[in-house]
Amino acid sequence: MFNKMLSSIGIGSAKVDAQLDNTQCIAGETVKGVVKIVGGKTEQQIDQIYLSVNTKYIKERDDKKYSVDVIIDKFKITDSLLVKPEEQIEFPFSFVLPEDTPLTAGRTKVWLSTGLDIKNAIDPGDKDSIEVKPSPEVAAVLEAVHTLGFSLREVETKEAPRRIRGRLPFIQEFEYVPRSGPYKGVLDEIELLFTPTGNGQVEVIMQIDKRARGLSGLFAEALGQDESYVRFEVSKTNAPEIQQTIRNIIDQYS
Fold first, then answer.
1. A Pfam family for this UniProt protein (predicted)?
2. Which positions ≥6 away from 43 have C-beta within 8 Å?
3. Which fold has domain 2-133?
4. CATH 2.60.40.640 spans which residues of the chain?
């Protein structure tokens, strides 16, 4: 009885550990691994084992910023089972990493949480960081922007405006500034937002922020009229020519 009481507050209870085959992945790919459970000091009934993909994003209220944890998706590994004292059990798992998982760039972190639902007890858990790499389509855009002389200044995962909010409450913005090339001194910055649309295609929203020129330019900048928003799609078909596409768009709006 005493051991059961201790297990209910997390002392001597079952332990869980998720081990991934690969900690680097691309959104839309299959993540594989195994969940290992080691029984505690007493027999425990586990209602279910689950995995969740998590990240943080920034919210702003009353001019104050704070970070919020959010579950991107959750996957059930197994139903109810009984774990005997010090028993060792393994469950292989696989799931598709959601396509709208943000990249682990800048201060954006993504991690996998493993949990055991145990009635009347503190659920033991495990956290494992994963590195989310860009898809070939997103990588083509980022490489094109870099080749045109832009340098990455900031990546921010923040609360999404309702007009562009999708399944998740946040967006991830990539902010670039022209350090060299044809747009140095012409643009202040460009910002990129990537949204998967399925079938290997990605929609890109690009904000082009022109540098103020003369009094009219300063007036437009003060009113926020120096910013242009352009949408275009990237796929395996047009990815090789995406640098020229981006250059044509910037030339048109700058």
1. Spo0M
2. 82, 83, 84, 85
3. Immunoglobulin-like (2.60.40)
4. 2-133
**Helices assigned H by DSSP within the chain:** 2-8, 136-147, 214-222, 242-253
Q: How many residues does the chain have?
A: 254
Q: Say yes or no to pLDDT of 7 above 50.
A: no
- In single-letter form, the type of residue at position 213 comes to R
Residue 102, Cα to own-chain centre: how many angstroms?
2
Look up residue 35 and give its amino acid: V
| Structure confidence by residue, pLDDT tens digits, 82-114 | 889 889 999 999 999 999 999 999 999 999 999
141's CB contacts (< 8 A; 6+ apart) are: 192, 194, 202, 204, 234, 242, 246
Helix (H, G, I), strand (E, B) or coil at 175: strand
* pTM recorded for the entire structure: 0.83
Query: Which amino acid, residue 117?
Result: D
